[in-house]
Design brief:
Number of helices: 10
CATH architecture of the largest domain: Up-down Bundle
CATH topology of the largest domain: Butyryl-CoA Dehydrogenase, subunit A, domain 3
Number of strands: 0
Radius of gyration: 25 Å
Largest sheet: none
Number of domains: 3
Length: about 300
Amino acid sequence: MGAYVYAMDAMLYATTGFLDRGDQDIMLETATCKVFCSEFGFRTVDDCLQVMGGESYMTENDVERIWRDSRINIIVEGANEVMHSFLFAYGSKQLGEWMLAIKNKPFGNLGASMKIGAELFLGVRPAVPNAPNVDERLKPLLDEVMRRIADHSHSVKMAFKEHEERLVTAGLVQRRLALVSLWIHAMVCSISKLQARIDGGLHGNELEYELAVVRHLCAIANDEIVREQRNLTINSDASVKAAATAAMKWIDGKPNGHYDIPEKTPDMTARGTGKEPDLKGIPQFGSGSVFQARTTAG
């Protein structure tokens, strides 16, 4: 929980810092911030609920309300599943266009063609970016991030090679690549925040605490990155699609009246044919409501 909160704080302040200094295009950073903070903000509160046990479920405790209020953040302002596709599409747009230009005219820039060809067909990895100077205690963490950046660049290029035009609709692949970039950003922001804190004189117990938290955040991030990269090649995508197709076919034979169907479902033939909601247990405002009676009496 401490690692999540530290990363969220670091990412939020980094994003507002980009805005304050006048950066023109921070769509990728703000989208990353939205996805990470909404997801791990809810996870943190959910863990808090679990730690407190049944008492946390009682309305008089703050965590119950925070838990309910934070869950909507994963949905509003762009559901995180949609944001994963945006992060991939917007983040890889320039790289994809560059690769397509080389593919269409391989002899137009022979040096670039040989470089990308060696990477795609011979397995030559891109160079690891140079890391800026940081406190010696943070250097191993930042060096690892630089290696992750190089690996991620290679993974994105290989995804373009393998899936080609199909990558536009390959949501599961997009999600994995987006999550890798999200974790890389979380590590960079967290290390940057701690470096700034050290430069500002952080020491003693506070320094030891923040070092432990950032090291743990990076450990979590590296585990998640390894898992997502592995799942690019070893996964259950084929069975997921088969099961989904079977489920959709099966449910088509069921009456709409057995299911809750949103008022704005894109299926026009299903609108207004869903299960009638049971509102008896929900207080209603209007004529004869308790709210109106109390207002009138007052």
